Amino acid sequence: MEHPHDTDQRLTALEIKASFSEDLLEQLEQIIIRQQQQIDLLVREVADLRQPSTDGGLGAPRSLRDDLPPHY
């Protein structure tokens, strides 16, 4: 037969584990929120990059070499 003291110790250990689990869950939720914000920003940036150029380039594909300084 189990002693009440053993039950109290097991209950305390479970409460501690539950508390750590709640803290970890909150941290993970915050990470997910931050990552979703970053994903949303990146999706908008990619969409902007895919838009045709409005600077008179007539939407022609650009080369990355066009952005290099003249000394390259």
Helix and strand topology:
Layout: H1 4-50
Coiled coil: 11-45
Biased composition (Basic and acidic residues): 63-72
Protein name: SlyX protein
Question: How would you portray this structure in words?
Answer:
With about 70 residues, the protein is mainly α. It has a domain at about 1-45. It has one helix spanning about 5-50. The chain is rod-shaped and about 85 Å long.
Please tag this protein with its features:
mainly alpha; 1 helix
Low-confidence stretches: none
Give the class from helix and strand content and strand pairing: mainly alpha
Q: Count the strands?
A: 0
Mean pLDDT: 87
Beta content: under 5%
Distance N to C terminus: 83 Å
Summarize the structure.
This protein has one helix at residues 4-50.
